[in-house]
Amino acid sequence: MKTPRALLTILILAGLVLGLASCKKDEDKVGKVEITDSVQLELWHTKTRSQEELLNEIVADFNASNEWGIVIVPTSIEGSYDQIFKETVAGLAVGEVPDLVVAYPSMVAEYMEADAPLPLDDYIESKEYGLTDDELDDYFPVYVEDNTYPAYDDQILSWPFHKSMVVLFTNMTLLEMAGADVPETWDEFYATCQSVVNNTDATNCWSIHIEASDMDGFMASVGVYPQADAKDKTSAMNDPKFVEWGELLQKMVNEGLARPEAERYSGDDEMVALDAAFTTGSTSGIGYFPKNEDGTFAIDWKIIPIPHGEGEDAISTVYGANIMAVKEDDAQRDLAKWLFIKYWSSPDVVKKWILGTDEIRGSSYMPLQKSLAADPDVKAHMQAEPRWGEAVDQLGIGVIEPQLAGQQAVRDILEDAFLRIINGENVKSVLDAGKAAADEQFELKAE
């Protein structure tokens, strides 16, 4: 009997968490460290507006309450994760870097070229300062896997900051007008889009968001996972199953069933205008779906998993920033970094980060812990914001993106391939060239 892919993934990840939880070290070197000096640490992040305000409040709470007198100084590197990556790389070259920085796993892998990340294994396992077995087991296993780096001896080089998932925003109003069902597989997705375009005034069905994380999710959805081999450092981009998926994408574009969104992140506007039935997006964008002036929605919409291949389980990409501590030869400062990371990712703080306060809007990122997903206040929020609740219900199907040095450049290669397929180039040739370019990037970083 074939074990379903999602179940197999859950079993593997559960084993990873239990294995880590069961290997607490007899000698607790970290536990012997005492913070006796004043410690001030700089945290680089990307948040602006209400999210920066909420982050600053959480940091202020830590500064005021922690027993060691640690002071965190948050600094917003406005722009994007690409910008914070470039500034961190530049800083590492001249020795001017923050103490803590938010980063995607692919960025952390790049920082390993400078041996910058502080491995967190000893801190997590510390009986004095670490996580208990129950606390560690409470994390969704995929988040532990996302911060465990096979290419670097399975060290934990970062820890969750906040997490999202690639999902399918679905226009239920347009599907009802078309007399179409909610699709589960890619073949059903194609048939649904035919119904939408043929039976409504919509000029399009799928408003395509060009994003590398979406492409990673599409690869996984047809059974191409992992998308890159951590041991051999090779891309699976031209796997025959993904070539077949690319041909379906191109067919949909040629038949007028799919096209790129008019502007970046405009897919939801096209849905509201009843000119698109679907767009992919991050769960973190659910709270920004367009509303009427009175706060209601102009259409009925919901969040569903991205389609999957025949014979495959529903699956999607979990992604988002982690916190990386920059290593120093200072035991007190390194410990202080972990203590803030532990605080930030604790259930009470994650809950505040998700839900916000009476004065500050919450971030609506995903719960990091299973207990938090079952928390009464979080459950109430799921009922009040049912689309966010639909996303939380999908956490069990999430898989990670590659954690390899070179993946930052490969993300651009993926997006370029996405566009070239949409523009009508031969799918196999595009993906063969993409794989060759990706493998070259991985090889360059491995030297």
CATH topology type of the largest domain? D-Maltodextrin-Binding Protein, domain 2
The residue fraction in helices comes out at: 40-55%
Level-2 CATH architecture of the largest domain: 3-Layer(aba) Sandwich
What is the number of independent domains?
2
Ends distance: 42 Å
Which consecutive residue ranges, at least 5 long each, have pLDDT under 50?
21-25
Polypeptide structure, described:
The protein is globular. Strands 7, 8, 11, 12, 13, 14 and 16 form a seven-stranded mixed β-sheet that branches. A five-stranded mixed β-sheet has the order 2-1-3-15-6. A two-stranded antiparallel sheet has the order 4-5. By secondary structure, the chain is α/β, with parallel strands linked by helices. The chain has helices spanning 5-22, 49-65, 81-94, 105-111, 121-125, 133-138, 141-146, 172-178, 186-199, 212-221, 240-254, 267-272, 331-344, 347-355, 370-373, 376-384, 386-392, 407-422, 427-446, and strands at 40-45, 71-76, 100-103, 148-149, 155-156, 159-160, 164-171, 206-208, 228-229, 234-235, 258-260, 278-282, 301-304, 316-319, 322-325, 398-399. The longest helix has 20 residues, at 427-446. The protein is 46% helix and 13% strand. It has 19 helices and 16 strands. It folds into two domains: 5-163 and 320-399, D-Maltodextrin-Binding Protein, domain 2, CATH 3.40.190; 164-318 and 400-446, Periplasmic binding protein-like II (D-Maltodextrin-Binding Protein, domain 2), CATH 3.40.190.10.
